[in-house]
Amino acid sequence: MHLHPLALWVALLCGTGMLPSVPPSQRLDPYVQRSWTSEEGLPQNAVIAIAQTEDGYLWAATQEGLVRFDGTSFKTFDRHNTPELKSSFITSLHVDGAGVLWIGTGGGGLTRYAEGTFRTYRTGDGLPHDIISELESDASGAVWAGTDQGLARIFHGEVTAFRPGEGLRGEIVTSLFAGEEGTLWVGTELGISVLKEGVWTAGPFAEQLPPGKVHSLLRDRAGRFWIGLHKGPLMRVEEGHVTSYGPAQGLMGERIHVLLEDRNGFLWAGTSGGLYRFSGERFEAMESVTSPVLSLFEDKEGSLWAGLDGKGLLHLRAARLQVYTTRQGLPTDNVLALHEDAQGHLWMGTYGGGVVRFQGDTRTGAWTTKQGLPSDNITTLVAAQDGTVWAGSMNRGLARIQGARILPDEATASLASDGILSLLASQDGRLWIGTLRRGLYCLEHGQLVHYGEAEGLADDTVYALKESQDGSLWVGTRGGLSHLREGQFIQDAATRALERVAIMALHEDAPGSLWVGTYSQGLHWMQGAQHFVFGTRQGLFNEVVFHILEDDAEVLWMSCNRGLFSVRKAELQAVAAGQAPRVTSTVYGKGEGLHTPEGNGGSQPGAWKARDGRLWFPTMSGAAVIDPRRIREGHNPLPPSVHVEEVWGDGSLLDTRGEIRMPPGSGRLELRYVGVSFVSPEKVTFKYRLDGFDTGWIEAGTRRSAFYTNLPPGEYRFHVKAANSHGVWSTDEASTLLVLEPHYHQTGWFRALLVLLLGSLGWGAHHLRIQKLRAHSAVLAERNRLARDMHDGLTQSLTGVMIQIDAALGYLAVAPRKTQEHLERARDWARQSLSETRRAIWDLRPSILSVSALAEDLKRSAALLTRPDQVQVEVHVAEDQPLMPDVGATLLRIGQEALTNAVRHGQPRHIWIDIQYEPPQVRLCLEDDGRGFEPSGPLCTGGGLGLTGMRERAEAHGGSLEIDSQPGQGTRLTAVVPLHPRHTGHPHEDRTHSNPSG
């Protein structure tokens, strides 16, 4: 729980009273611990051995299987899911120089694991026994396996056994240590044996050691041997001198299970009584570890791992920060205020425990209501220039501490019932007091001056105070920022920008920039008229900022409800200048040593930068102290190793060995990946990309899976990278190839077939449409032909009837005989019209004409148009041959039109008709001796003679029409039509182009 700034004064049920003054512990526990048991995924809670492979995974041996750990989850291998493992009881683990994991079992022999493949060695392969107790490898690459009946050497797959009686002292191998010079030290139930250059000896100090079982062997960097005995002390052998360590030297437990020297040179001992670290003279107990320690291991990142008997797996890492709590002498863990005086004393105000003072790690004073404090709930502290320490309380005003006494102060007596939130001792000796709902006060020369909203203060609840370099005062309130200069509140860019914003913290840096922490509205930067707001979108860890401190490297440190975080000021300025999109926030929580991530806020000064450079922050669980120099030295430069562990398609686990193929129709793809880092593994972040789908990297944050749905068939490659908790990205990415198989209708051959089919259907549809258009055109052409036939036949016949009737009317009174003749001719014309109409109807059905039939039709038409005594018509046919109906009809209509024109306009005496069958064409020639005409004259070009229609008829059937005429010299018309017409327009337009003239 933190002090919510807007509900700061909600009463908490907490007892008061002064805790007795006790000397603080001289040694802070510098390790952050976390443990895992069967509740978190271990198959069993006795961790017998620990190792780490080159891919970053941690391996643990238990009685119920081999466990692989990535920092967040476990995967168990046992004889049920891994047939190559002949026993689930794992007794020992070792990674050799080639990165191969060797697995000793309790009855199943020795198993080798490399590149995802297991291979097992048993007595049939040369092992002296199938119970493996210890494993080691030497500089040559050979692996040594201790068993219950001797020792085995495995080199290039060959097994060599060393049994008792061949120089080995004892038969049960309990410990192994390979020296760099090629010497192998072997501990057994009878003591130590040494193998060097193929020769066994008892070792250089055999006589100095008591007889008995040797549980552990280690030679440290200084060349000293450490030997753990079964029921004896830990022995150190240095230059022939033996020193014993037991309970008198702080080392508890009758059995020394394991020894380890870490990268910092500390010696660790895991015993039946717990975990101990050697300080040079004595062993110090890790007080939180009380279970027997069976195994110890240091990983690549420098973390220490302990396998406990019955308590699972324990992770220990040097804390990046320390926390002062009741263990170090605080009366209560809930710290609200921190302040360092001119003498270097650190003052702490607590909730429920009053005031406490430290000099270094030693508590030198404590004050509660028993010593005269008005309240044990202290919210703020400040030391004045005269050495007086002022303490503000939650609801009982101010207390004045001088030396060890609490003195009354009449000048501030009027504040006795007020809540004091902030205090500031300015350079000119004045004391500034910020209150809850009572505004701002200034104590000077025993006089108290009040500033409230009436005087221009933004709000009467004052959270923060900061004296500027120019001597003015910045005042952070619940309702905005105020700027007091020479007794007057002024309005400037900063105050206008922060109107109605709850101001929690104020910091002015050396260049004069003002950094403002707010409640839920981020971090604000003010420089003159410039203003920029940093929130989570700009990379700020949290938008609640309780306190702001700046270290010597120009890094801003801030506290919030979720922990502490830091941001380089240069990054903030780059974002404000538009030179970068985001800052990187480094977060410090439980993984770095905080007992709780919740900071306290709502009063100032709460956080403090001490003169030694350390930074102090108040939390619900103590005063957290950070040494930025140590933080930078403890930076983790090792990037995580990243792996794609599982691929799921539509809820089914896919085989990830090699190329991953997904069946057609797979709709949901899930890829689960890990970044192996054991330093705050929950803060490992990821980014991934799917080639063939994603256009760039996807920032996944701490999420460990990627999801895709409805991917089209094809080949994809998935890439993933990881960054550790300090922002170091992996240089090598993990990738996996995915092939999404298509349905048959999504294949290339099916698409090609579909294109071909659609093309065929399209061509067929087009062809059908052409046929329909041709048929439609044929209908139109037939209509036009009928129209022309009516014009050329019926119209001409009616014209003949009209001519005869006109003539009869002319002779009606004077020549009845001629009238009769003309009427008879009119009757004949009417009959011919009827016959032509019938012929047109008949032409709708296919028929075969001939040259002679064409000649007879033309002769009959001429007879109807002329009188034998006036015009002589001669018809000549050279050869009678059949004609296609269209050919005969075309020539007949041309001939009829020509005869009509000759009789009506030419007044000839003779007309000659000649039909010549000249394959592949037929020729019609019609000649008269009439008046003739000018072919280029208006009578011809205007179409009055029907010449255009005749020519179109001939040309529509692939033929031609020629006219030879001169005035006074008669007319010769020649029409040539192919026996098998080739249509020059639409195929069915052979009867459509005539424009009959009337």
Automatic annotation (TrEMBL):
Q: What is its EC number?
A: 2.7.13.3
Q: Which GO terms describe its molecular function?
A: 4 iron, 4 sulfur cluster binding; metal ion binding; phosphorelay sensor kinase activity; protein dimerization activity
Q: Which InterPro entries match?
A: HATPase_C_sf (IPR036890), HATPase_dom (IPR003594), His_kinase_dom (IPR005467), Ig-like_fold (IPR013783), Reg_prop (IPR011110), Sensor_HK_TwoCompSys (IPR050482), Sig_transdc_His_kin-like_C (IPR004358), Sig_transdc_His_kin_sub3_dim/P (IPR011712)
Q: Which PROSITE patterns match?
A: HIS_KIN
Q: Which cofactor does it need?
A: [4Fe-4S] cluster
Give Gene Ontology CC terms.
Answer: cytoplasm; membrane
Q: What spans are recorded as compositionally biased (Basic and acidic residues)?
A: 986-998
Role summary: Member of the two-component regulatory system NreB/NreC involved in the control of dissimilatory nitrate/nitrite reduction in response to oxygen. NreB functions as a direct oxygen sensor histidine kinase which is autophosphorylated, in the absence of oxygen, probably at the conserved histidine residue, and transfers its phosphate group probably to a conserved aspartate residue of NreC. NreB/NreC activates the expression of the nitrate (narGHJI) and nitrite (nir) reductase operons, as well as the putative nitrate transporter gene narT.
What name appears for this protein in its UniProt entry?
Answer: Oxygen sensor histidine kinase NreB
Q: Which organism is it from?
A: Stigmatella aurantiaca (strain DW4/3-1)
